[in-house]
Write a structure and sequence with these properties.
By secondary structure, this protein is of the alpha+beta class. It folds into two domains: 4-164, Ribosomal Protein S5, domain 2, CATH 3.30.230; 175-312, GHMP kinase, C-terminal domain (Alpha-Beta Plaits). Helix content is 41%, strand content 23%. It contains nine helices and eleven strands. It has helices at residues 72-83, 108-123, 130-145, 151-158, 192-205, 207-230, 233-250, 255-266, 292-301, and strands spanning 4-15, 26-42, 52-55, 60-63, 92-98, 162-164, 171-172, 179-185, 271-275, 282-287, 306-312. Strands 1, 2, 3, 4, 5, 6 and 7 form a seven-stranded mixed beta sheet that branches. A hairpin with a 6-residue loop joins strand 6 (162-164) and strand 7 (171-172). Helix 3 packs antiparallel against helix 4 (151-158) and helix 5 packs across helix 6. The longest helix has 24 residues, at 207-230. The chain is globular. The chain starts with a strand and ends in a 5-residue tail after the last strand. 48% of the residues are buried. The model has no long low-confidence stretch (mean pLDDT 95). Bound molecules: (3R)-3-hydroxy-3-methyl-5-(phosphonooxy)pentanoic acid. The site of (3R)-3-hydroxy-3-methyl-5-(phosphonooxy)pentanoic acid has 15 residues, from helix 4 and helix 5.
Length: 317
């Protein structure tokens, strides 16, 4: 039997992270320069009579039954089986390869979940809708991140830029002209659930300060949406940088993120900010496409571990 393979992209949050957990809007962009591929092949004649999971990125090679009950890969498989009322998985080999760094704000966990759900449901003869894939991926995000807003699984499932408000219908948005982002990895692994929990502590300790910050971020996101759609990237850039300053006040930036933001701006980026949970992970810079390579090199000289350049096409392109 041929292998079934499904891939899912990564993502960055353009603006609104953290505040989105508190019912404020956010914008997320799929990133196709990094992705996760899940390939599954049925092995009915396997001598082991057991499904094997191979995921080199997380140094995992074991039988499915050896994974703890709450392991996200095991939960993903069980959710698919439950949804189609199958009580066991035919013996197979499941390979997961990702070019996305883990714990870096690029959505590697949601990307892995979406790739597994799509590949396994296809292998079993079911074609889940995007909504169904998204719902299952959200359940797995809860294991990874505790109280996620759902933005990561949604942008990765639909693979389109979206304006997202927790618990409300989301909206796909397209930029007024092609948009270019340089994404730079600090090389510092950061746990989104830890960052979200620390923000929660801050919020509980000083609600009025945090509510003000979340409201300010929410307003910036509304402005960012408008300038994104109009293609006014000068204004969008300024808005993203202001968002970074508010994220600093929230306490989720760190020295290297701040210095990469400064470096991007001083080398001509239109705006720059941390992206995702923060405390490490990745930052993004909005740039004119002809300056993308030079700003990416400047970010490496300023201490970034690596960079990616991604483009969001405009309508009709
Ligand atoms: O997974 P990350 O690191 O990109 O963070 C997701 C964005 C947060 O707003 C920090 C958390 C969430 O669930 O929305």
């Amino acid at each position: 039997m041929p292998a079934i393979s499904c891939s899912a992209p990564g993502k960055v949050i353009l603006c609104g992270e953290h505040a989105v957990v508190y019912q404020k809007p956010a914008i997320a962009v799929p990133v196709f320069e990094g992705s996760t591929k899940c390939s599954i092949v049925a092995k009915p004649n396997s001598p082991h009579d057991e499904t094997i999971i191979i995921a080199p990125n997380i140094a995992l090679k074991c039988f499915l039954s050896c994974l703890v009950e709450k392991h996200p890969i095991r939960v993903a498989i069980n959710l698919v089986l439950e949804k189609i009322n199958l009580d066991h998985l035919p013996v197979c080999e499941i390979r997961i390869n990702s070019s996305l760094p883990t714990a870096a704000g690029l959505g590697s966990s949601a990307s892995t979940s979406v790739a597994i759900i799509r590949a396994l449901s296809t292998l079993l003869g079911y074609s889940f809708s995007d909504d169904e894939v998204n719902q299952l991926a959200f359940e797995i995000e809860k294991i990874h991140h505790g109280t996620p807003s759902g933005i990561d699984n949604t942008v990765i499932t639909y693979a389109k830029t979206l304006f997202f408000n927790k618990g409300q219908p989301f909206e796909f948005i397209v930029p007024g002209k092609p948009l270019t982002l340089v994404i730079a990895d600090t090389g510092i692994k950061s746990s989104t659930s830890k960052a979200v929990a620390e923000v929660r502590q801050g919020y509980l300790a000083d609600q009025s300060k945090y509510i003000t910050l979340f409201n300010q971020i929410g307003d910036l996101v509304l402005s960012a949406k408008e300038s994104f759609i109009k293609g006014d990237f000068q204004l969008l850039g300024k808005t993203l940088t202001e968002n970074h300053l508010l994220l600093r006040e929230i306490g989720v930036s760190c020295d290297i993120l701040d210095s990469l933001v400064d470096s991007a701006l001083s080398h001509g980026a239109l705006g720059a900010k941390l992206s995702g949970g923060g405390q490490g992970g990745n930052m993004i810079a909005l740039v004119d496409s002809d300056r993308a390579e030079s700003i990416a090199s400047a970010l490496i000289s300023s201490g970034a571990l690596k960079t990616l350049i991604t483009h969001v096409p405009a309508k009709g392109i």
